[in-house]
């Protein structure tokens, strides 16, 4: 990716728009499918009681929303709050960067940055 393309894709206004779009879609998904609480923990929306097919691993952060069934211990929410910050920084480019970083959490730079132990990866 050229420097010019990178600077446009990661420009704060575009990243913010992508973050807000992802958050809106995830909130709709969460409110529709959640059978548990939907609450706010600091700046992270947490949708509990989601069906297991509606997220990956123990839960998924999409924009500013964490989708999970019951995986809501404080260290996990701290881990997911870092993913929220990553979404804010990269916007809709984040899923692509995350995919390119690899599925193995132990070598994925975004999971490492969020804290492997807090994310239950160790």
Please render the helix and strand layout as text.
Blueprint: H1 3-9, H2 12-33, E1 38-41, E2 44-47, E3 59-62, E4 65-68, H3 74-90, H4 94-101, H5 109-114
Parallel strand pairs: 2-4
Antiparallel strand pairs: 1-2, 3-4
The secondary-structure element order is HHEEEEHHH
- Please state how the strands of the largest beta sheet are arranged side by side: 1-2-4-3
Overall pLDDT level: 94
Which structural class matches the secondary elements?
Answer: alpha+beta
Strand residues, percent: 5-15%
Overall outline: globular
* Strand segment count: 4
- Terminal CA distance reads 33 Å
Q: Helix coverage percent of residues?
A: 40-55%
Outline of this structure?
By secondary structure, this protein is an alpha+beta fold.
Describe this entry's structure for a reader.
- With 122 residues, the protein is an alpha+beta fold.
- The protein has one domain (3-114).
- Helices cover 49% and strands 13% of the residues.
- It contains 5 helices and 4 strands; from the N terminus they run ααββββααα.
- The chain has helices spanning 3-9, 12-33, 74-90, 94-101, 109-114; strands spanning 38-41, 44-47, 59-62, 65-68.
- It has a 4-stranded mixed beta sheet with strand order 1-2-4-3, sandwiched between helices.
- A hairpin with a 2-residue loop joins strand 3 (59-62) and strand 4.
- Helix 2 (12-33) packs across helix 3 (74-90).
- The chain is globular.
- The termini are far apart.
- Keywords: Membrane, Transmembrane, Transmembrane helix.
- The chain crosses the membrane at residues 18-36.
- This is Fe-S oxidoreductase.
